[in-house]
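re: that chain from earlier
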Amino acid sequence: MFKDEFTAWFIAGMIGSVMKDLYGLFAVLSRFATFHIIHIAADIFLKKPHIQIFLGYLIGMIIDLSVGGIFGILSGLTLRCFGNRHYLLKGFVIGFTIWLGIFGIIMHTLPQIFELQVNRPNEVLNFLLVHVVYGMVTSYCIIKFTWPAPLR
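^ sequence. v structure.
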């Protein structure tokens, strides 16, 4: 579909982010989670009172989509290096790795960066599921956008 893999990978990552955000919205609306991933993204640049206003949401969405696109490029490189067979499983592992890196390492070892803290078990599980959805959707989109050839 795309001749430029870099662009395809970036767009696939953004699509993965949108699907991740839709799942996260469902989790917040069903009260399974308190925070949406957009709140966490906005928390990187804004103080807590500014996160819940319109511009806070907008900034959070821009950050979230941009980071999703960047991780889409890394996902594309991973599929290119290790092959595209079992791409959904690889997407699961990519999402799990992103969750472990961001929430397991960065948020808990550097709490001074974030005012919002994800400490409750249901919040931690929600963000794990959100990132697994991201990884699997992104890998699926990468395969559909860039690989007309059979799985290898």
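The radius of gyration is 16 Å.
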